[in-house]
Amino acid sequence: MTAPASASPASPPKLEIRHLNKSFGTGAQQIEILRDINLDLAANEFVSVVGTSGCGKSTLLSIVAGLETFDDPSGGRDYSPVRIDGAPVFDAGLDRGVVFQSYTLLPWLTAQQNVEFALQAAGMEAAERRRVAEEHIALVKLERFANAYPSELSGGMKQRVAIARALSYRPKMLLMDEPFGALDALTRQQMQELLMQVWEQHRLTVLFVTHDVEEAVYLSDRIVVMGIGPGRVRETFRVDLPRPRTSEIVETEEFLALQHKVLKAIREAAQRLPG
Known about the structure:
Helices cover 33% and strands 21% of the residues. The protein has a 6-stranded mixed sheet with strand order 6-7-8-3-9-10, with helices on both faces. A 4-stranded antiparallel sheet has the order 2-1-4-5, with helices on one face. α2 packs across α3 and α3 crosses α4.
């Protein structure tokens, strides 16, 4: 078994977040969602963000994805608190693949056509689109269902298509927001194992939002605990469990001890007063 293959501490971060703040509304109606978020992700690192509902996990991921704005103290002078490979993030881009809990597949296209559609938007020629789509449908083990429509697929299969689509244009980062939250327990475990296989093969940097602490410990190199009132980073845990991981690891003392520590940190973060 091997240890996590992340970049060394001396390497520049793949994702760099500095003093990120986010509020909704204005004046007396303004609500502070995120306060002074500082976070680095190394190349090839798998980091999960956990915390109680309302702590801003999904908002943070949406800002990194370029789908949500941030508070800008510069007054619009090309400022961004989020950088990928040193470049500021202002909008969505093909350097980030995004997978949500909802599958967001186009119902009139087959599984393979959904992947090809994303590649067409990326400007890829038709023959190359077919080849790359077939490759990524195979990567998520859906070859037999390549020509099936979303209505003919189970929830787990739809999420496999969503993952294949997000990976197909070779992003620098994969951003995942509760991607397995709507799945039953067995399908969820199968999807976790598939994600680990894909991550081992592609060695992507992954930012993963989940409310499931067991899932976070199983998947991650590092776990970030967020607190509420407003959302901020409260504590970080390194997951020093060997890779590759199998489902049996969840029953080990080391796994259960870390799971307990993270749960305790979430409870303590939720009990702290706002401000």
